[in-house]
Specification:
single chain, mainly beta, Neuraminidase, 0% helix, 47% strand
Length: 296
Amino acid sequence: MKAIPLVHPVCHLGECPLWNPEEKILYWTDILKGKIWRYIPGHQEAELYWEGDHKVGGIAFSRDGGMILCSDKGVYKIPAEERGKRRAIPKKIIDLRLIANERFNDITTDPRGRLYAGTKCNNNKNGKLFLIEKGMPPRILLEGLGISNGMTFSIDLKYFYHTDSSALTITRYHYDIHTGNISQPEIFYRGEEKNGYPDGITIDTEDHLWVAFWGASSVRRFNPHGKRVHELKIPARQPSSVMFGGEKLNELFITSACEGGDDIEKGLDAEGNFLGGITYKVITPYQGRPEWPADL
């Protein structure tokens, strides 16, 4: 399995890849530059899809064809009729109060269209995990997090996985599809700083987690018991998230970032090493599961 770079300007903080199975297009964000990119298979180059004054830490498609943006300003939506306009103005859809220097950092959806949206603060303390459900006020499921990051559900929908990058942990919870609640936490993965920080995650149809490890130039695959069974090395030191896509959902897309670098236009640190900012594609022998649309 080889990481193939998609040609586009280097992202400062490339994150949140999301495959749209109807359009067959990959989208991702550059959080710190306030941009959303997209890649159409068959094209070598990615293209700028949207830009604005939001630091978009998570995107989801809605059942009515719109795009949900979770940012430093809250939860917004680009209506279906406005999508495709590079400077479309998102509309606020959820009344949710964030504290100073708090922004959304990663999100996911469940089969009922609920939104699980995690935040971080500048000091990497006081992060939260919100549950946002149509017709209900937002609920805080977890608080006191460092950096709320990658999330996914087990294939049988019995478990919910959540990453706290600064704590170097992925926690598995029992998941109740009827209420959206999570309970009975158990540590699925606990790492050490020298091995990189767990960041964005996704799952394949064999119920194995794929985890981007920030600082380790790698994506690792874990079986349901938390044992690492494969490691994929990539050219960027700071891979940030992963998502399956492609016609057969067997292509793993990997975003990366040059946050903290010396040259954010080229993605380099002070010694000239490449930190990241490019999105990569890896053709795998595995398949992913399509993400569910939000119902908000």
